[in-house]
Amino acid sequence: MTIHELSKQLYSLSVAGYFNGEKFTRRQLESHIASAFRGTLKAGNRYVMEIALPDGRWLFTVNRFANTSDGFDYTIPDTREEEAKIKALLITPV
Fold first, then answer.
1. What is the maximum span of the chain, computed from C-alpha positions, in angstroms?
2. Per DSSP, what are the bridge partners of residue 53?
3. How far apart are CA 65 and CA 73, in angstroms?
4. Phi and psi dihedrals of 38, rounded to 5?
5. Which of 32, 39, 54, 82 is the most buried (most CB within 10 A)?
6. Euclidean distance between CA atoms 10 and 57, whole angstroms
7. What are φ and ψ of residue 72, in 5° steps?
8. Taking the model in full, what pTM does it have?
């Protein structure tokens, strides 16, 4: 999906547009995600963020799959154990 589609879906899932502890508009979220991938042309890039959901704040990933504008997807974990794996990405060197 495109970054536009991705940000639209994530924004609709969030509680009041809160990401990384800050309130975003949908356009701000789209711009924030786009800037995270600016200059990264290879597939396999990943960006970790936090989203406010009705059941709490969760880490999630945004993934780039290809060199095209529609090569993005996101993963929100189902359990706190799965979220711990995402948290480990933040402290484990690549």
1. 35
2. 56
3. 8
4. -60, 130
5. 32
6. 13
7. -120, 150
8. 0.84
Enumerate residues 6+ apart whose C-beta is below 8 A from 34.
3
Alpha carbon distances (Å) from 64 to 7, 42, 55, 71: 13, 8, 27, 6
Length of the chain: 94
Of 22, 48, 44, 26, which Cα lies nearest the Cα of 36? 48
Indicate the helix (H) or strand (E) that contains 90.
Answer: helix 80-91
Over the stretch 82-92, which tens digit does the pLDDT of each residue have?
999 999 878 86
- What is the Cα–Cα distance from 64 to 73, expressed in whole angstroms? 7
